Amino acid sequence: MVHMVFHISMLKKCMGDPSLIIPTEDISINDSLSYEEIPIQILDRQVRKLRTKEVASVKVLWRNQIVEEATWEAEEDMKKRYPHLFEFGEIPDQCTYSLFSTF
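^ Chromo domain-containing protein, sequence as received from the core. Prediction below:
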């Protein structure tokens, strides 16, 4: 059995960044101490061409995240789960990428 001993001198003071603090009253935390992230905007759209099909993705901005942390998600899944994001036609113009093209 290993015993861990920490001395006060081993602990360092941590200075937090107040801009990264998320008010807990804005987030519904469940019993397992997790929460569901809510998408608020579609930032971009792209279509990747594979050999036999095309795969559409959308770049999603999530609540309590900054633009740099937006994620690419499957467009079909997002339309099923969050149809309201696609109602007003506000998705940016489509970008098409081919995985087999030469640059």
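The first strand starts at residue 39 and ends at 49.
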